[in-house]
Design brief:
Elements (H helix, E strand, L loop, with lengths): L9 E4 L10 H9 L4 E3 L11 H15 L6 E6 L1 H12 L6 E7 L15 H5 L5 H8 L8 E6 L18 E4 L12 H12 L4
Parallel strand pairs: 1-2, 1-3, 3-4, 4-5, 5-6
Helix pairs in contact: 2-3
Length: 200
């Protein structure tokens, strides 16, 4: 039997146009503090595949990588936060994920979703059927330790308050650029606090 003090493995899910490389600093930071860190490249990553289909990649990865009784901590950045939510709310992740953190995720849509007429951006538009459906039972996330971290200066998530939801913990951190949210020291420290459950 594993030590009760051993933390859950952490799975990182990236956003549109990103790869696992965006998490290099976060991965190093968490590994140094004793976490096992995993991530996968969502393919393709440029929005042609719907978020529900990308979430199936997450579910497949979890099923192949971890034993059935293994609890996980899940961190989703930007589009990856919504992909992760679909996995949690619709594909059984709710039974596996203990701590669930989204970083600058467009929970209520983003106007930048109108920039591309592709499946994923269309699903990330404000009041899209996809998001409205997920938000109908957002209370499911209360079964996890859910945290949404966001910045009011986000120019990718418009309006930035779209990252706010009525469940879990809402943490606003002043970071000036969307991609910096996964490498800023203030954010990394908060992630560690949330994973450790220091506020619960």
């Amino acid at each position: 039997m594993e030590s009760l003090n051993k933390p859950n493995p952490v799975l990182l899910i990236h956003g549109i146009f990103d790869t696992i490389r965006i998490f290099d600093k976060m991965s190093r930071y968490l590994k140094k503090l004793g976490w096992e860190v995993y991530s996968l490249n969502l393919v393709p990553n440029y929005g042609i595949l719907g978020l529900d289909k990308l979430a199936e990649q997450v579910a497949d990865y979890v099923n192949k990588t971890f034993p059935p009784n293994q609890t996980l901590d899940l961190i989703g950045f930007s589009m990856g936060g919504i992909v992760s939510r679909y996995y949690v709310q619709r594909l059984g992740g709710i039974d596996k994920v203990e701590n669930f953190i989204t970083i600058s995720a467009p929970h209520n849509g983003t106007l930048t979703g109108y920039a591309l007429n592709l499946a994923a951006p269309i699903q990330m538009r404000p009041k899209s059927n996809f998001l409205e459906n997920l938000n109908q039972d957002i209370a499911l996330l209360d079964k996890t330790n859910f945290t949404s971290i966001w910045t009011p200066y986000d120019a990718m998530i418009l309006p930035p308050k779209s990252s706010q939801v009525p469940v879990g913990r809402d943490i606003k951190i002043d970071v000036f650029l969307h991609p910096w949210m996964v490498s800023d020291e203030k954010v990394l420290k908060v992630i560690v606090e949330e994973l450790k459950g220091e506020y619960r």
